[in-house]
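batch_manifest entry 22 of 60
target: PTS fructose transporter subunit IIA
source organism: Deefgea piscis
requested by: lab member K.T.
priority: normal
notes from requester: please return tokens only, no post-processing; we will run our own comparison against the previous entry in this batch. if the run fails, retry once and flag.
--- input ---
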Amino acid sequence: MVGIIIVTHYTMGEALIACAQHIMGRALPQLAQLAVSKADDPDELMKRAQELINQLDDGSGVLLLTDIYGGTPSNIANRLIVPGHVEAVAGVNLPMLVRALTYGHQSLDIAVSKAITGGLEGVLYMLPTVPQDEKGD
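--- output ---
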């Protein structure tokens, strides 16, 4: 199963994991997070990230999901990429995470593709809905 590590500012990853567990209705042992703060030593973060990769990689690869491209979390994720083995996607949101988890039993490249489409398709402009009892005849 593809391992997934959420690399984000502060506690965003923790919140995403709690929400994903609620939605999926089960424990998610292939999922971990690395919280990044301004006070953290980048070399120590790299070491912790590599340890998480080693823990979660069962040979299927690892997908790193990060928040803002160009920020410290994404820069750390970028340094960890090993094409075909450790891949990274920026712009993590809950639809992206749920889609990646849903397809984590497939290959890493499919999990990456599904994560991206899930993230994109999960962003919608919402129009107000009119309750049925307020519609005119």
